[in-house]
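Subgroup meeting minutes
Present: P.N., E.W., G.H.
Scribe: E.W.

1. P.N. recapped why we're keeping a running log of single-chain structure predictions: easier to compare across weeks, and new members can see raw inputs and outputs side by side.
2. G.H. added today's entry (111 aa).
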Amino acid sequence: MPDGRVVICDGKEVVITDGQSALDFIASVAYEYECNKIVVNKEAICEDFFDLSTGIAGDVAQKFVNYHIRFAIMGDFSEHDSKSLKDYIFECNKRGPLYFVGGEEEALKKL
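Output recorded in log:
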C-alpha cells in the first residue's frame, strides 16, 4: 500500500463498535483506497470504546496494528474524565500507531 495516502472519514455514523467492525472498516477503507493511514471522527467510534474496562479500545487498536494501519481519531476528548483513558491517550499519542487528535491538521501531522 502507498505510504503517503491518508483517508479521512468525516462521517458521524458509528462504524467501529468492536474488533470485527474494525476489521470490516479496515477492509472497506484501507484496501479500497489503497492506504495505510486513516482518520475518523470520534463520533464514528462507539462510546464504549472510551471505557477501557470494556476492552474494546485494546481490541480495536490491535486490529490496526496487525494490519499495519496508522489510525487517528479526531475530536474533543476532554469530556472523558477517566484517568486511565487519559493515560491511554497520552501513551498512544507518544508512540502510535493509534492517535487521538483535536482535528484534521493535527491528524495529518501525526500520521
